[in-house]
Specification:
The chain has helices at about 10, 30-45, 60-70, 90-100, 110-125, 140-150, 170-175, 180-185, 200-210, 220-230, 235-250, 260-275, 285-310; strands spanning about 50-55, 75-80, 130-135, 160-165, 185-190, 215-220, 255. By secondary structure, the protein is α/β, with parallel strands linked by helices. The protein has two domains: about 5-20 and about 195-310; about 30-190, Rossmann fold (3-Layer(aba) Sandwich), CATH 3.40.50.
Length: about 325
Amino acid sequence: MIAGAVYQELYGFQHRPFSLTPDPDFLYPAASHQEAIEFLTYGLSEGLGFSVLTGEVGTGKTTLVHALLAQLPDSVKTAYVLNPVLSFPEILVTILDDLGIHPVSTRKADLLTELNRFLLEQHAKGCEVLVVIDEAHNLTISLLEELRMLSNLETSKAKLVHFLLIGQPELDALLDLPGIRQLKQRVGVRVSLRPLTSDETEAYIHHRLRVAGAHCRFTQAAADQVFRFSGGIPRLINQICHAALVAGYVAGARVITEAMVQRGRRELMAHQAGPPQQQIGGSGRQRFARVSAVLLFLTVATILGLAIILVPQGLP
């Protein structure tokens, strides 16, 4: 609510409707996203070794996975690897640490022994273990092979660990390489997120406003404009809608119009492109520029603060 606090009183927000953080409470169940959740849930329930979720940047992969994890029963223990650009022992340390295990040794053999012991204990209790690896398109072929070998930890009847790989479309290309065919054979579920349609974009906007408790709305023309500018990519929708709300705040309006979306996008592009070439005239424009700059700074600061919190601790 930090960045949204500037216009919270006007719009009555209880939460920021267009935050860039992956809040599962705001997940809009578009057809592509609902299909992905169903397939991924099936993959876990069937004990498949690997599931894969891909999508272009900003399509909502991380938000969807957070929603999926929130639905899992307590009997499913999860580890989340945010940064796969690590050595395999470092990935093992990250997994163990997320599972509540703090190994003394960082030797690969010792780490594997610790993990295997934990997996067997959980299996005896009737629990399952899911390892989620985000940004998996950054994994090297050698690391993918190490993960495949890790998936060999099993009993005669069940896998002891399941993997969910999340990444951009480059991950699909990586998995299709001839040298990865053994791992590819262990992928039981492979789904891809699509951008939202025009109708879904409008529904997405009003869904997020409704969840936030807002006393405002976007007109049909404004929602159509958001779709044209964003191409149905949720992250871009959020950025554009946030900027449009700033424009609406400046105008004191609770109905966001097409013109406000256009104005918000211009300001957004100006900030992304760098300092403007000439000074914006008029007291209203100056106020808008000041508010936009403050909101942008606070949003970036919030994201950086979140990133610092989420970086795995205790890595060598």
